[in-house]
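Appendix B, record 7
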Amino acid sequence: DGHALLKDGHHLLLLSREVAENLSVNEYQQRVQALSAENKMDNASADDIALLKSVADPIIEQARRMYPHSRGWEWEYHLESSDSVNAMCFAGGKILVLTGLLESTGRNRDKLALVLGHEVSHALLEHGRAGLSRDWALFSGMWIVAKSFKMGMARFSVALEDMQTTLLPLNRGQERDADILGLEIMARAGFDPHAGARV
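Structure tokens (predicted):
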């Protein structure tokens, strides 16, 4: 359902799943277009593309089994040419893996599966949707307070930053949840969580 609390009960969801996914997919598409224009998209070696496929496909299969709402996603994954060590999964099943991650993991499938499982878990658990809802509620609430107390923009900005700092433990909770689910997904997909955890 579009406006329920997530199953752990501590995320208020003000945006519908559809709106959050559309926003995320649009952000992803803009990034892909920019990277393609810079010739930084999918120009890795055939071996690296095959490696990503061999890890991403089983992870996606498990995600679809465990979270039915992701079965309607148009899953896809791409390699971005970058020395940075990172990967991300946007709502809607859009995965970007930076080539620096392949290098830093020694192209180890279990280590790569750990990272992909974690990132896919963020999308499955709708952490982006929760973050958008929280930011919208925080900004709207602070704006009302600022107008009520005739607070200037400088004081409003400081108050908003203070509130965001207060909410950092929620982000850490999301990281922990994604770690736990990511380990389960990678194990169900046939990867070794013990080897992966060495990442």
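Remarks on this record: The chain is about 65% helix and 5% strand. Strands lie at 76-80, 87-90, 94-98.
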